[in-house]
Amino acid sequence: MSGTYLGMPAFPKAAKTSTQNTQLRANLTRATRTIRDKRATAVTELDDWAQLRSAGKDIKDRTLRHLDRYLLQAEEAVTAAGGVVHWAADAAEANRIVADLVHAKGEREVVKVKSMATQEIGLNEALAAEGITAYETDLAELIVQLGDDLPSHILVPAIHKNRSEIRDIFAGAMGRWGRPAPEGLTDRPADLAEAARLHLREKFLRAKVAVSGANFLVAETGTLVVVESEGNGRMCLTLPETLISVVGIEKVVPTWRDLEVFLQLLPRSSTAERMNPYTSTWTGTTDGDGPQEFHLVLLDNGRTDTLADEVGRQALRCIRCSACLNVCPVYERAGGHAYGSPYPGPIGAILTPQLRGLQSEVDASLPFASTLCGACYEVCPVAIDIPEVLVHLREQVVESGGHRVERAAMKAATWLLDHPAALTAAERLAAKSRALHPRRLPIGPAKAWTDTRDLPEMPAEPFRDWWAKNRDRKDGPR
Predict the structure, then answer these.
(1) How far, in Å, CA of 193 to CA of 177, rounded?
(2) Sign of the Cα pseudo-torsion (251, 85, 211, 2, in order)
(3) Is the Cβ–Cβ distance between 277 and 229 less than 8 Å?
(4) Sheet (strand 278-282) strand order
């Protein structure tokens, strides 16, 4: 596997490696710039985009304030419609529930709709440990799975691969997972798509159990919603006999009228489309139509703890559009794998540390994986102030004992600024020794900073001394 979430190094070390991969950077630059340019055009078509954005933010905030009520309403509606609701406090419980449901049907394989929630909990790996094979059916997720890789983007999981690399993956791996790729497969997009279609079709027709996530859960009717561009999700949601949906508790929206707002915001922000090519909805079960058994697994896995943070909870507004990734200068250069999480980019830098906690080196490093330029906030369709949350989480990291050197430096600077005589003496000493100052620091925690920039040049004398000599001149200081 070319990347791993468990045990990955902290972001600075992972990014140092990934930024040296010229092919990766070229793939990312080309793809992200194309997507963000198209998105900008799609958004400007709507005169009321700002009002839609504000409405989306308000709906999410209102829902999160009363989340307990809406979740119980959704559970009641799903149950009344013939579904079964399961509550999962964490990843282990969610994985156990899904595995038990598959075993109960006597099956050893499932087909899957693209789902961030199932990536978050490591469902595929958990099912494999139970002797169950999960087949990804989204084209990009299929590429990642066949390549023994990990997703690196929320919307386009295989964004780090180009067409030639995808052709090689299909040619080399499809046969081990099912129908092999056609002989002489080219890297033309149409040929690659056809190879994937033929490979997946036999799985759709054979599978008895499907696993999905959901983009939204409408509380008033218990209806789940999946939006997609390919139609593979529609096949998973309609053909198998049993459907299991793993859904984060923050995905609930109160009413269909609220859903209307997000069905305008999401496609333009994600794929730059006016509407999603496929919007699938399902409410419980219906005799003779679609899966005859439906299970909804409502996943917490750190979301309740996130909800308790008045600043950090805004991350739960996220509708997984990935617009923030496509404008982020850090993501564009480092790639998704450097974040050590299924949620990369700016949203991952604030969501992952809250869901998993700040105890590990990886999670404690993520709030610092940003320039705080604010581009992510400007494009977020639900107005998540990502820079605000990043700074908030950085404060938590420092208060918990992380970044000790920076904390000590700030304390020293605070003392120095509180003692003018000491500050003056330090400034004069620094000015007199300026010829001995290095342009870069060879060792120490600040070395990484000066590896890519020179230290500021020290002036010949401190400003205080210059002002003292010049301020009394009749014609003013010179």
Answers:
(1) 17
(2) positive
(3) yes
(4) 252-253, 216-218, 223-228, 278-282
Residues 358-373 have pLDDT tens digits of 999 999 999 999 999 9
Distance CA 177, CA 200 (A): 10
pTM comes to 0.87
Question: Mean pLDDT of all residues in the chain?
Answer: 92
* H or E element at residue 135: strand 133-136
Residue pair 251/214 in contact by the 8 Å Cβ criterion: yes
> Smallest Cα–Cα separation from 86: which of 97, 71, 72?
97
Query: By C-alpha distance, which of 107, 346, 342 is closest to 209?
Result: 107
Q: What angle do CA 299, 303, 305 make, to 5 degrees?
A: 135
Which residues partner with 330 through β-bridges?
none
With 80 as the cut, is the pLDDT of residue 455 above it?
A: no
How many CB atoms are located within 10 Å of the residue 154 CB? 26
For the chain, give the percent of residues with pLDDT over 90. Answer: 77
Nearest 10 degrees: CA dihedral of 368, 373, 379, 383?
70
Distance between CA 277 and CA 282 in Å, rounded?
17
Contact 376, 346 (CB under 8 A): yes
Question: What pLDDT digit, counting tens, does each position of 5-25 carry?
Answer: 555 789 999 998 999 999 888
pLDDT in tens, 433-447: 888 777 777 666 566
16 Cβ neighbours under 8 A, 6+ residues apart: none
- CA dist 200 and 259 (Å) reads 31
Q: Which helix (H) or strand (E) holds 246?
A: strand 242-248
How many Å apart are CA 6 and CA 122, to the nearest integer?
A: 10
